[in-house]
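_Backbone structure tokens_
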Amino acid sequence: MYQRKLEKDIRCPLEYGLEVFGGKWNSRIICVLAAKKVLRYSELRKEMGNITDAVLAASLKELIANDIVIRKSYDEIPPRVEYTLSEKGVSVVPILQSICKWSGAFYKEDSGNMMIHCQKCDYK
């Protein structure tokens, strides 16, 4: 597995926020978990659409490490693991909804190109 040679050089709160919930997949995972509350890995992958297992696993590990997502495993056969947003993760949702609302106002989309994933934000 790749490991950075240097620690991330985050110098302001905005950089930290973008590192935690920015990017294509982290924000989508947060929005899906906000809408569905609790999901197993396979359910989350199905909701995400065209994400690979490797990218989903890496994104979840990162979100768990940043205390955005909680991973709960059950001592059962077969094993069961569920993912949900932490309190910190829930606090990010209004920020993502605001970004979605802003993007909806300024994004020039084609008539045939719907922003399906943004509909998960359910902004008002």
User: Anything to note?
Assistant: Residues 1 and 81 are 23 Å apart (CA to CA). The chain is about 50% helix and 10% strand. The two ends are 41 Å apart (CA to CA). The mean pLDDT is 83.
